[in-house]
Design brief:
Elements lengths: L2 H21 L4 H18 L7 H15 L5 H29 L13 E14 L9 E12 L14 H10 L18 E2 L8 E7 L10 H9 L3 E4 L8 E3 L5 E3 L2 H8 L3 H12 L4 H12 L3 H23 L9 E11 L1 H12 L3 E7 L16 E5 L10 H4 L4 E10 L10 H4 L3 H4 L6 H19 L11 H4 L3 E8 L1 E2 L1
Helix pairs in contact: 1-2, 1-3, 1-4, 2-3, 3-4, 6-15, 8-9, 10-11
Pfam families: PAF-AH_p_II (PF03403)
Protein name: Platelet-activating factor acetylhydrolase isoform II
GO biological process, one term: lipid catabolic process
Length: 488
C-alpha cells in the first residue's frame, strides 16, 4: 500500500479509541480538521480508488460521531453503539484487506544499462482465422515491442500499465466491472512509449504469453530483458489472450465458447497420463503412455497455431530492419524465443522446428507434441515452478531427450505457476493466485537473471557469462546443465 493509504487506515483504526482523550486537550474541531486533512491528502496526492471506499465511509462516520459529540445523550448512545459494534468492525476489516489484496503495487526497476521503450505494431497475416465463425476473417495480430532506448527525459511520459482492452478482458474473466481495474492507472512503469531506439543493433527475442492471460501482463520480465539490450516482440495471440486492441478501435477478447469447443472430451486424452502418474509405474513403464497422450491433447493445436503466428512475424523482420522505427536495430542472426505456460511450450516448438531461432526458453509450460521423440539442435532452457510432488511432471518425459547443444533444467523453489507474470505484484495473496511463498521481487530477479544469462551466453555468445554461478547467488535456484546427454 502507498504511504497516505497506510496513514489513513492507521488513523481510522486508532481514532475511534483515542479521540475522546484528545478532545480533553484539543477542540473537536482540530480533531476533525486533522482527520479531513489525512483524507484530502490521500485523495489529492495518491488519488481515489474503489478499494478504499470502506475507509472513506469510515471517515465520514467518524466525522459524524465527533461532530455530534454534544448532541443529546440518547442520540450519542445510539450512534456510538452502531459505530462500535456494527459499522466499525464491518467496515474496518475490508478497509484494510481490499487495498492490501489489490494494491497500487511497485514493479521492479529494470537493472540494465538501457532505458526501455515500447511501441505497438499491427499485422494482418492473411491466414484464415480459425477461431471466429466468419469464413472471411483473417488472423490479425497486435504486437507490443519492447526495446532498448537511450536515456529519456525526466518528465517523459511513461507507459500505462496494461492497455484498457486487456483490463476489460481481465475484469470479464473474474466477473468484475471494467472500472474495477482503474486503480492500475496509478502503477508506475519503467517503459516509455515511442521513444527512439538506442544506437546500435540488438538481439531479438519473441515472447509468447500464457493461454487466457493478459498478453502484456509481463511488465517486470519484459522491461528487464529490454533494459539488458534485447528487442522483445511481445506476441498477443488473438482470441486466446484476454484482450487485443486493434488500431481501428475494435477489440477482440478471449473466446470462451471456442475454448469449450476445443477442450470438449479432452479428459479422455489426459486421464491416461494422470493415472500413469498416480499408479506405481516407473518412468520407463509410464513413458509410452505419456508419449501417446501428448500428441493428441488440444493444447498441442494451440501451440501449433501460436508457432505459426511467430513464424509470420519472423518472416517480417527483414523488412522491419530496413524501414520503420526498428530500422537497423535488430541482429537477425541472433534470434531467440521464450514464453510462459502454453506460450512456453509454443516457444519450445518454435525452437525445435525453425532454424532461424538460435536459442529458446520455456517458462513453466508443457511442450505438447513431438518433442518427446527428438532432441533440440540448439541451446535450450526449461525453467519450472516449484510444483508439488503429486503434480504430473510431463516435461520429465518430453525433455528426456534434451539437446545436442546445451540444455538447462532449472527450478525456482517456493514459486507457483503465476510467479513468472506480474500477478504476484498485482495480487500479493498467494492463496488467491497460486503463487508461491517466495518474495515476488526475488522470484522475478532469479527469473530475469537466469533468462538474461542464458541468452547472453548462447545468443550473444558472451563466453565470460557463467550461468551456473547463479546457483551460488540464489539458494532457491536449482539448476542442472547438460551438454548432449551428459551432466556438466
Amino acid at each position: 500500500m502507498r504511504l497516505f493509504e497506510i496513514i489513513l487506515l492507521i488513523t481510522l483504526t486508532l481514532l475511534p479509541f483515542v479521540w475522546k482523550r484528545l478532545a480533553l486537550r484539543f477542540s473537536p474541531k482540530y480533531i476533525l480538521f486533522g482527520l479531513l486533512a489525512v483524507v484530502v491528502l490521500q485523495l489529492v496526492l495518491e488519488g481515489y480508488r474503489w478499494q478504499l471506499l470502506p475507509a472513506y465511509v469510515l471517515a465520514v462516520l467518524l466525522v459524524i460521531r465527533i461532530y455530534t459529540a454534544d448532541a443529546s445523550k440518547a442520540f450519542k448512545v445510539s450512534v456510538l453503539s452502531v459505530l462500535r459494534f456494527v459499522l466499525f468492525p464491518v467496515l474496518l476489516i475490508p478497509a484494510w484487506i481490499l487495498p492490501a489484496a489489490l494494491p497500487v503495487f511497485d514493479l521492479p526497476e529494470p537493472r540494465g544499462a538501457y532505458a526501455v521503450g515500447t511501441d505497438t505494431v499491427y499485422v494482418n497475416t492473411n491466414r484464415d482465422e480459425p477461431i471466429t465463425a466468419d469464413p472471411n476473417d483473417t488472423r490479425k495480430l497486435v504486437l507490443k515491442i519492447w526495446y532498448p532506448a537511450d536515456s529519456v527525459a525526466t518528465n517523459a511520459k511513461r507507459d500505462s500499465y496494461v492497455d484498457s482492452v486487456s483490463r476489460v478482458g481481465f475484469a470479464n474473466k473474474y466477473g468484475l466491472p471494467a472500472s474495477a481495474l482503474n486503480y492500475l492507472d496509478y502503477v508506475k512503469t519503467y517503459a516509455y512509449p515511442k521513444v527512439a531506439v538506442a544506437q546500435g543493433s540488438f538481439p531479438v527475442l519473441l515472447f509468447s504469453h500464457g493461454y487466457g492471460s493478459k498478453a502484456t501482463g509481463y511488465y517486470a520480465l519484459l522491461s528487464e530483458l529490454a533494459s539488458q539490450g534485447y528487442v522483445v516482440i511481445n506476441m498477443n495471440h488473438t482470441y486466446e489472450s484476454l484482450g487485443t486492441a486493434f488500431p481501428n478501435g475494435e477489440a477482440a477478447y478471449f473466446d470462451y465458447a471456442y475454448q469449450q469447443q476445443i477442450a470438449a472430451d479432452q479428459m479422455q486424452t489426459i486421464t491416461p497420463i494422470q493415472e500413469a502418474f498416480k499408479g506405481k509405474l516407473d518412468f520407463e513403464q509410464r513413458h509410452p503412455i505419456v508419449r501417446d497422450a501428448i500428441q493428441d491433447y488440444f493444447e498441442n493445436d494451440i501451440q501449433n497455431r501460436w508457432v505459426t503466428d511467430m513464424q509470420n512475424i519472423l518472416d517480417l523482420l527483414p523488412e522491419w530492419n530496413t524501414e520503420g522505427f526498428l530500422k537497423g536495430s535488430m541482429r537477425l542472426n541472433q534470434l531467440g524465443v521464450f514464453g510462459h505456460s502454453v506460450g512456453g511450450g509454443a516457444a519450445g516448438k518454435l525452437a525445435l522446428t525453425d532454424e532461424r531461432i538460435r536459442a529458446g526458453v520455456n517458462l513453466d509450460g508443457i511442450q505438447w507434441g513431438t518433442k518427446i521423440d527428438t532432441v533440440f539442435q540448439k541451446p535450450f532452457l526449461y525453467l519450472s515452478a516449484d510444483w508439488p510432488t503429486e503434480h504430473e511432471d510431463i516435461n520429465s518425459h518430453v525433455y528426456r531427450k534434451k539437446s545436442t547443444d546445451y540444455f538447462y533444467e532449472a527450478k525456482i523453489l517456493n514459486t507457483g505457476h503465476p510467479n513468472f507474470m506480474d500477478i504476484p505484484f498485482m495480487i500479493p495473496v498467494a492463496s488467491l493466485t497460486g503463487c508461491g511463498s517466495i518474495d515476488p521481487e526475488l522470484g522475478m530477479e532469479i527469473t530475469t537473471k537466469l533468462v538474461t544469462a542464458f541468452f547472453d551466453r548462447h545468443l550473444r555468445h558472451k563466453e565470460d557469462v557463467d550461468i551456473e554461478a547463479l546457483k551460488a547467488e540464489f539458494e532457491l535456484l536449482e539448476l542442472k546443465a547438460f551438454k548432449g546427454d551428459s551432466v556438466q
